[in-house]
Design goal:
Blueprint: H1 11-15, H2 22-28, H3 33-45, H4 49-60, E1 63-64, H5 65-72, H6 76-88, E2 92-97, E3 100-105, H7 107-121
Antiparallel strand pairs: 1-3, 2-3
Helix pairs in contact: 4-7
């Protein structure tokens, strides 16, 4: 096997990634920075209790902000902040209906919400339920 640039890695450890083309091949197989940024945005958007609850409510049906705010018991400004994050992540969209906006899940939001539901319904990955 070709000697790696990282002399502190034992040869036995490098052999385990030989099938990947060594350390260079492993690094080359990683998603690019733009893709990693999208994953980070997804996790950021789903890393708040209110945003998860908003996604779950919108999974049931599209709702106006006033109903979401009342259900969560939060201020208008706090709701606006959370809705903005979800919109910027591409998970929800708002449609004007007269004097208010009705929010619903995008196709991406439906996917994310379905993944959240799988976690809620099943055992926690890593055996934390044991």
């Amino acid at each position: 096997m070709k000697k790696s640039c990282c002399s502190e890695i034992p040869a036995e450890a490098l052999e385990t990634i030989g099938g990947q083309g060594g350390l260079e091949g492993l690094i080359a197989a990683l998603p690019d920075d733009a893709a990693i940024a999208r994953v980070r945005e997804l996790h950021h958007a789903c890393a708040d209790i209110y945003r998860i609850k908003i996604l779950e409510m919108l999974r049931i049906q599209p709702l106006c902000a006033c109903i979401i705010r009342e259900a969560l018991g939060i201020s208008k400004s706090k709701l606006s902040y959370h809705l903005k994050i979800l919109q910027e992540a591409g998970m929800i969209t708002g449609t004007a209906k007269g004097t208010w906006i009705v929010y619903g899940l995008t196709q991406y939001g439906e996917f994310c919400s379905s993944m959240n539901a799988k976690v809620v319904e099943g055992p926690v990955i890593g055996g934390l339920d044991d």
